[in-house]
């Protein structure tokens, strides 16, 4: 994946008002209208914030509206793969082999990153692999054009205008080339796909050349990712995800994100580790991505940091599991999950749940947090195993 879904979730949650906002009478319009006048307002704001007029001119002089960016923005894809399908697809032998090779190749900077920020090499390496295939696929959208396009567009200027200002600051630092720097359609840059504001705030010079260049320097990308993940709340020396075996007499209604017991309490209920030792004193949620018959994981507090990076449950769980594999865990036991629902069935289920008073959000066929919670509540109400996995049997009962 070559863009930050965390940021994409912000895009989806922002109201699509279509209104042009203003900040102060002295500045040009916040969005819309004549594009060159809009850019003049951005320059004025950047200079007012202490950036040089020269850097603003250098950044904005050749900026253009990119219609492909608008097209991607209007038609954001939806995530409908199951955990087993997605994880098998993205955690390939190639990525496992190259992940191990990169952890060895950059062992010194990974060691420094863990010493300074507490984030282990496998955690960063998994993100590096899933975001850009270790830098091989970083996106081919001109970054300044993408940010200028989305800042000028009146859907979410409050999200993108600050990123365009930050891009000017990167140009001033010599860390972004307005003509040549490319990345994701929504403006993320580099091997771990970070936005300009985050690069300005957390960017680290890992190779000692005096610059932060996440596109070219693996050392910069690794150290910067460590600083960013630490800021999200990473807890040094603690696990993040652990595969477990679960007894079939468990109270499934106690599973899922947001429902925690200590590791010791889960162990007392018969939950057993498939590798390593359960961290008895830490709170943990029992995750069943495809129900009680599929893989099961204990998610410790550090798992929440993955949700800060990317709010897709399937991507998050896959990234966390991938990191455990890079850290030495064996391949998960896939089990034999009950069949799930196809797209039409999922939308039918969401429509029914909504009619029953549950907040499932948009009827989109995606098994998101709201739909999972509603499914679990209905399963419990009907006396079915409340493992939050929607099946044809549940749909038929409704």
From TrEMBL:
Q: What keywords are annotated for this sequence in UniProt?
A: Signal
- Give the residue range of the signal peptide: 1-28
SUPFAM superfamilies assigned to the protein according to its UniProt record, in alphabetical order: Lysozyme-like, PGBD-like
For the Peptidoglycan binding-like domain, which residue ranges apply? 343-398
Q: Pfam families annotated for this entry?
A: PG_binding_1, SLT_2
Q: Which residues form the Transglycosylase SLT domain?
A: 35-323
InterPro entries assigned: Lysozyme-like_dom_sf, MltB-like, MltB_2, Peptidoglycan-bd-like, PGBD-like_sf, PGBDSf, SLT_2
Q: What is the protein named?
A: Lytic murein transglycosylase
Native organism is Roseibium porphyridii
